[in-house]
Amino acid sequence: MEVEVKKARPPKSQPFTIAGHTIAPGERLLFNLPGANLYTHTPLDMPVEVIHGRRSGPVLLVCAAIHGDELNGVEIIRRMRSFRSLGRLNGTLVLVPVVNLFGFIHQSRYLPDRRDLNRCFPGSERGSVASRVANLFFKEVVQHCSHVIDLHTAAVHRDNLPQVRAALDEPGVREMAMGFSIPVIINSGLIPNSLRHEAGQAGIPVITYEAGEALRLDEKSIVSGVRGIVSVMRTLGMLPSRRIRTIRAEPYIASSTSWFRASIDGVFRPLVKLGARVASGDSLGVISAPFSSEEAVLIAKTDGIVICVNNLPLVNEGDALFHIARFGETGAVEEEIASHESNVEGDRLYEIEAINPTDPAASG
Ligand SMILES: [Zn+2]
């Protein structure tokens, strides 16, 4: 049972203007941002939905598929847009389910110019296609928002434990990261020309939610993501706060992370799962030569939690196979991950949600 915490209501909001559209308080608008064209001259527009509350508050952008093959975020946004509680929104929610439409259509991370869109911000009107798409999205959408949650998955054939990545010392970022209510937070540096870096430079705090695998939908990642975004919206005062009696995830911040790579070429068999606790000296996996008895065991060189695994058995020497995060209290993190997973599996959003969306921000 949840009890609503009464707070003074924010003042009435004013009309909100974005990309040449003005939305009145209490209204929502779905529009297409005219972007690039296909070779056929068919327009390839970017759908944007704005839900503008009757009361003032932050302008939160939730975007997905900047890497066009990362699909969990597309589904997270689809589920969020039908929540009835958005009728009581303070502030404005801007939803962009597919930023990289070229990649989405081609089931690819990249754009036709072979660029990674998340290395092209803030972009340029005169650059090649990735730079133009970055410029359009940054100028017309991102710069009109006060906060951003950017949704990603691991790259193809890799699986990420649901986690938040954020530069926690940047203004406003820690509050959002902790507010996501997920066990694992990676305090990660900013890569130049990424959305996180460039929006941060513009004074807009950004967190990245990383969960699951490219080209796959993963229910646990999706439910954790929906829950996390609603939790951030409550933290920012966009949705009513509640005292929740059920256990919420305690966030733990990783002190560092490292990749463990294949020591020989061959067929890879993992011995530990995503989210597992490993100790220095543990066997992480085995790589075997298919036509000889040669075999190499991959040994952990640190204690930590497995936050990413490679799922492709065919590996070359040097391929990244496990990403391990180190924490001060590894045992507590392992317990929190297990507890969070069982909470997610027991959540009423789980599985049936795809057919009959329910609203985690609604009462009950
Ligand atoms: Zn990504």
Please, could you describe this protein's structure?
The protein has helices at residues 72-80, 101-106, 129-140, 173-179, 195-201, 219-235, 330-345; strands at residues 2-4, 16-18, 21-23, 28-37, 43-52, 55-64, 90-96, 147-152, 158-166, 184-187, 206-212, 242-244, 252-254, 256-261, 266-270, 277-278, 283-288, 295-299, 304-310, 314-315, 320-326. Strand 6 (55-64), helix 1 (72-80) and strand 7 form a beta-alpha-beta unit. Helix 1 packs across helix 6 and helix 4 packs across helix 6. Helix content is 20%, strand content 32%. It folds into 2 domains: 2-252, Zn peptidases (Aminopeptidase); 256-326, OB fold (Dihydrolipoamide Acetyltransferase, E2P). The strands form 4 sheets. Strands 4, 5, 6, 7, 8, 9, 10, 11, 13, 14, 16, 19 and 21 form a 13-stranded mixed beta sheet that branches. It has 7 helices and 21 strands. It has 364 residues and is an alpha+beta fold. It is globular and about 70 Å long. It binds zinc ion (ZN).
